[in-house]
Design goal:
With 376 residues, the chain is mostly beta strands. It contains two helices and 30 strands. The strands form seven sheets. Strands 1, 3, 4, 6, 11, 12, 13 and 17 form an eight-stranded antiparallel sheet that branches. The chain has a seven-stranded antiparallel sheet with strand order 2-5-14-7-8-9-10, with no helix packed on it. Strands 20, 21, 23, 24 and 25 form a five-stranded antiparallel sheet that branches.
């Protein structure tokens, strides 16, 4: 991750991070940018606005005649597998048939956050238009206030949440249709009727292959986990009224969790009682005057050793340069070299220790023919 992005995270401390299950994540705080690098095109006048936001100072504003769309992707084909769709919304109009996220083909595949008669619902169908979900409730629709909604599938069970509270469950074994058109803020009927979301959307995330919640949780308590060498660093948002936090861990997604730290007064914790190569799953609980909160979201990380490797660079004059570097340094060099020609910095700086002296060596992009990496 670039230093700029790290600094921004610590400055704002508001967001989920991309993990191996995340197929789309839009914070709407630095434009219409998907952290998974999908490209969303605006139709009409969708804007990132500072008038309302749940996290980070900005959110997506849709005026009731605009929407976002992205190209077809296998990432949005859920079939009968686990998935999670979650978002924050601040609706400003009670417009029937408006939807937050719609997948279609062009028939109805899945509509998440669909407004029907003043409630937020979800609909889902098979390839033969057999109903999987019909008016599956996520809770009441409240105008001009922020609410968090989640649609989860875990095995054959669907779960609907509003503000961390389980609202509905439904059991169905059928597979969802393959999606071609993916939109945020627009629903189109098979007959061509168009309906649009009006209001603000923040922190919209689509996850494939994981049921992030199947029980009550606290959507205000956002946890991230970063793997290191024989350690996992945890960071979370501060919860108003919290006097301390409890950190829990499991080696199985969804728990059961065991408490590994209590009475934590910071909003970060480093777990050093871990084994490299093992995936750990964490939740955090806030302690307030009213007792313990529900769990945060689950965050996972797999600590790995920072081994060494030999980077051998061949220059245009046929000379070779060798550097013994950590895997993190190797990755940074590869990311720099793999950029589009003509963009980014023209030189890469490597530190070389000569005796007790440290020397910086600058490699010019246009002088490099090739390079190879050998594990040590």
């Amino acid at each position: 991750m670039l230093d700029f992005e790290i600094n921004k995270f610590w400055e704002v401390i508001f967001m989920y991070e991309v993990d191996k299950y995340t197929v789309s994540l839009l914070h709407f705080d630095d434009g219409i940018k998907d952290e998974t690098r999908k490209v969303w095109a605006g139709v009409g006048s969708p804007v990132v606005s500072s008038a309302q936001s749940k996290f980070g100072g900005e959110s997506l504003y849709l005026d009731g005649a605009s929407y976002l769309t992205t190209g077809a992707s296998e990432d949005f084909n859920f079939g009968s597998g686990d998935f999670t769709i979650d978002w924050w919304e601040y609706r400003t109009a009670n417009t029937n048939y408006s939807s937050v996220l719609t997948l279609d083909n062009p028939g109805n595949v899945l509509m998440a956050g669909y407004n029907a008669s003043g409630a937020v619902h979800c609909y889902a169908y098979t390839s033969k238009m057999t109903t999987i979900l019909n008016q599956f409730s996520l809770g009441s629709l409240d105008l001009n206030t922020w609410n968090h909604f989640v649609l989860v599938r875990h095995g054959n069970t669907f779960y609907g949440f509003k503000n961390g509270k389980l609202v509905s469950t439904s059991v169905n074994t059928l597979s969802l249709e393959e999606s071609i058109n993916i939109t945020i803020g627009k629903y189109q009927t098979k007959e061509g009727g168009l309906y649009y979301f009006q209001g603000y959307i923040d922190e919209l995330r689509v996850s494939k292959g994981i049921a992030r919640w199947i029980g009550d949780f606290n959507p205000e308590l956002t946890l991230t986990a970063t793997a290191g060498d024989s350690k996992v660093t945890l960071s979370w948002t501060a919860l108003d009224g919290a006097t301390s936090y409890i950190v829990k861990r499991s080696t199985t997604s969804g728990g059961a969790y065991e408490t590994i730290a209590s009475g934590v007064t910071d909003i970060n914790y480093v777990d050093t009682n871990v084994t490299n190569g093992t995936t750990y799953y964490y939740v955090v609980v806030a302690v307030t005057a009213d007792g313990e909160s529900n769990n945060s979201n689950e965050a996972s990380a797999t600590p790995v050793g920072d081994g060494k490797a030999l980077l051998c660079v061949t220059m245009i004059d046929s000379s070779e340069r060798e550097y013994q570097l950590s895997t993190a340094e190797i990755d940074a060099f590869i990311n720099w070299f793999s950029r589009t020609v003509g963009t980014g910095t023209t030189c890469y700086v490597l530190n070389k220790n000569v005796g007790v002296h440290n020397r910086k060596e600058y490699l010019a992009f246009e002088k490099i023919i090739s390079f190879e990496v050998t594990e040590i």
